[in-house]
């Protein structure tokens, strides 16, 4: 397979500073942009989790081909692998946090702990949250504390940074739940998260809701009703959306042909892939690719 054209950054490759921590980075947004904006405003991926809070400024932020207008006290959460880019003015302020998949594993002894938070679902719209006014000060204070502890004697304060970051996640999670129109039983959330995790693992080889239902030990009707109830979509739609998203990500790679992408995604032939892509995106793969590269020159 051809190498991916869109850059993938880890924490060390972004910081490029001697002795940089490969599991965690915290910075003020203005400082971060001053150091790295020249290459990070182009579409790229991360190998780490990414948190971005704006407290001042204007511009746009695109995550997996969905563009959001930046607003003060808007917070963004991204998981490894998502494609994003930003275009900001010169008066930005806020905070940025990067942490690896390993950052919490030894601390929590739970490899799927991040899955409990809806904003780390990997769905662009679910990872963007406008903070209510009563959370502005508390959120900023938590991030200020993280900056303080991460900036001095890192080894002695690593656990404090983890606790503060978890406190932030739990605070946002509670706010989301409190502002939701309905309370969702934990059992349903666990099942939905399990389904999404399976899709992320198997979307290339498993396309039928029945096969996922078997893996989850539920009936296809139960799985479909769960998705309709919580998301207003069918189980089949979630699977197709994940395949379409990966197709779009791969199409950003100018070195891969459409035929290679169709093969990578396990389509029977190129024409079937073209029909699938046009049906669910409204344009052909070649049209999408041309539009993407025109917009990101």
TrEMBL record:
Species whose genome carries this gene: Paraflavitalea soli
Highest taxon in the source lineage: Bacteria
Keywords, comma-separated and alphabetical: DNA-binding, Transcription, Transcription regulation
Keyword presence, DNA-binding: yes
Entry keyword Transcription regulation: yes
Residue stretches making up the HTH araC/xylS-type domain: 193-291
PANTHER family attached to this UniProt entry: ARAC-FAMILY TRANSCRIPTIONAL REGULATOR (PTHR43280), TRANSCRIPTIONAL REGULATORY PROTEIN (PTHR43280:SF32)
Protein name: Helix-turn-helix domain-containing protein
GO molecular function: DNA-binding transcription factor activity; sequence-specific DNA binding
SUPFAM superfamilies referenced in this protein's UniProt entry, alphabetically: Homeodomain-like, Regulatory protein AraC
């Amino acid at each position: 397979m051809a190498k991916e054209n869109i850059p993938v950054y880890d924490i060390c490759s972004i910081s490029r500073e001697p002795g940089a921590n490969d599991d965690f980075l915290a910075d003020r947004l203005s400082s971060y942009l001053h150091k790295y904006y020249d290459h990070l405003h182009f579409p790229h991926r991360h190998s780490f989790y990414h948190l971005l809070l704006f407290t001042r400024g204007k511009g746009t932020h695109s995550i997996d081909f969905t563009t959001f207008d930046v607003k003060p006290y808007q917070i963004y959460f991204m998981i490894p692998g998502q494609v994003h880019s930003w275009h900001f003015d010169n008066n930005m302020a806020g905070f940025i946090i990067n942490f690896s998949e390993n950052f919490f594993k030894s601390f929590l002894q739970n490899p799927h702990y991040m899955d409990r938070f809806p904003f780390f679902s990997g769905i662009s719209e679910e990872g963007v949250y406008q903070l209510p006014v009563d959370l502005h000060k508390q959120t900023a204070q938590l991030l200020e504390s993280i900056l303080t502890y991460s900036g001095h004697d890192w080894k002695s304060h690593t656990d404090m940074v983890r606790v503060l970051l978890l406190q932030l996640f739990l605070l946002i999670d509670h706010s989301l739940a409190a502002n939701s129109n309905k309370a969702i039983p934990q059992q349903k959330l666990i099942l939905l998260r399990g389904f999404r995790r399976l899709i992320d693992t198997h979307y290339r080889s498993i396309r039928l809701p029945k096969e996922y239902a078997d893996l989850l030990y539920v009936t296809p009707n139960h799985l479909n009703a769960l998705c309709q109830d919580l998301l207003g979509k069918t189980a089949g739609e979630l699977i197709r959306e994940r395949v379409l998203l990966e197709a779009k990500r791969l199409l950003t790679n100018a070195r891969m042909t459409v035929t290679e992408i169709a093969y990578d995604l396990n389509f029977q032939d190129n024409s079937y892939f073209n029909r699938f892509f046009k049906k669910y995106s409204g344009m052909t793969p070649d049209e999408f690719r041309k539009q993407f590269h025109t917009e990101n020159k």
